From TrEMBL:
One of its GO terms (cellular component) is cytosol. It comes from Natronobacterium gregoryi (strain ATCC 43098 / DSM 3393 / CCM 3738 / CIP 104747 / IAM 13177 / JCM 8860 / NBRC 102187 / NCIMB 2189 / SP2). Belongs to the SsuE family. Isf subfamily. GO terms for molecular function: FMN binding; oxidoreductase activity. Pfam families: FMN_red. Residues 5-145 form the NADPH-dependent FMN reductase-like domain. Its cofactor is [4Fe-4S] cluster. This is Flavoprotein.
Length: 195
C-alpha cells in the first residue's frame, strides 16, 4: 500500500477547528496503514466564490487545489455541519473540481457538529460525490457534540476516535477499488469541467 496517497480536505476555516483535528488523526491512521498523506487546509488557499464564466486558472488557487485532488488515490472530505449541510468553503472547493478530479476516485466522508449527529451534511456530501461518479466508502465518521468530543487536541471518546481511525484505514484499503458504473445523475452534471 506504499503507493497510495490520501488527501483530506478540511472544510472548516476556524483556527481551533475540530474538523481539522479529526482529519489529522484520520491521516495518522492512513500513514500507519502505509499511505502518504496530505491535509488540504482551505485557509491556505485563495478560492473566490465559484463563477462558471471564469476559467479555473484565473481563480486564485483553484487550479492548484484541483491538481492536489487529481493526484490523490483517495480523498477524505471533512466539514462542520452548518444549517443542516456542509460548509460553504468546502462547497466552493468542490465546485472548482469535476470529473477529472473525482470520477472513479475513492472518497471518505467526515462531518462534525456542535449538536446532534451531522447526518444531513454527510448525506449532502455523498450526493455530490455520487454526481461526480466517485466511489464513496460506506463507513463514514460523524462527530456530534464536538465541544466535548476533544480535550487538548485529542479525542475524549475512544469509540469515536476509532470510527475516524477506521475511516483513515479504509481510505487506504479501498483506494484502488474498481468503482460501480456511472450514476444516473452523472451525465447531467457539468460542474467545473473545463474550468
Amino acid at each position: 500500500m506504499s503507493d497510495v496517497h490520501v488527501v483530506a480536505i478540511s472544510g472548516s476555516l476556524r483556527e481551533a477547528s475540530k474538523t481539522r483535528i479529526a482529519l489529522e488523526r484520520l491521516l495518522e491512521a492512513s500513514q500507519q496503514a502505509g499511505a502518504t498523506t496530505e491535509l488540504i487546509d482551505l485557509r491556505e488557499y485563495d478560492l473566490p466564490t465559484f463563477d462558471a464564466d471564469c476559467d479555473r486558472e484565473e481563480a486564485g488557487d483553484a487550479d492548484l487545489l484541483a491538481e492536489r485532488v487529481r493526484e490523490a488515490d483517495a480523498v477524505v472530505l471533512g466539514s462542520p455541519m452548518y444549517h443542516g449541510s456542509y460548509s460553504s468553503p468546502l462547497k466552493t472547493a468542490l465546485d472548482y473540481c469535476g470529473f477529472d478530479e473525482f470520477e472513479g476516485k475513492t472518497v471518505g466522508l467526515l462531518a462534525v457538529s456542535g449538536g446532534a449527529f451531522p447526518v444531513l451534511a454527510l448525506e449532502h456530501l455523498r450526493s455530490v460525490c455520487r454526481a461526480l461518479n466517485a466511489w464513496v466508502i460506506p463507513h463514514e465518521a460523524a462527530i456530534p457534540n464536538s465541544g466535548s468530543a476533544f480535550e487538548d487536541g485529542s479525542f475524549v471518546d475512544e469509540k469515536l476516535e476509532q470510527r475516524v481511525v477506521t475511516l483513515g484505514r479504509r481510505a487506504v484499503q479501498y483506494a484502488n477499488i474498481e468503482p460501480e458504473p456511472d450514476s444516473f445523475e452523472s451525465d447531467q452534471n457539468v460542474g467545473a469541467e473545463g474550468k
